[in-house]
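Quick start: read one record
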Amino acid sequence: QHALDVAAREVPADFTRPHFKSGDRHEDIYRTIAMGLDGTPMVGFHTLFSEEQIWQLVAYVSSIKKEHAGN
C-alpha cells in the first residue's frame, strides 16, 4: 500500500523542461532508463530493452527536449 501512495504523489517526468533530474548528458539519460531513478517509482528497464533500444529511447527523449528548447 505504501508504494502505491508514493507512486500516486509522483509527477511524471516533463521531457520539455530544460534539465532532467538525473542529468542532461546522453549517458545520464541512458543510465536512468537502464537502472531507474532511486527515490522515485522509476524502475530500470535494462532487462526489458536491449542496449540498442535504450540508446534509441535516449535519442527520442533528447529530441523532445531539443524540440522544446527555448520555449
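The helical segments are 2-9, 26-35, 51-68.
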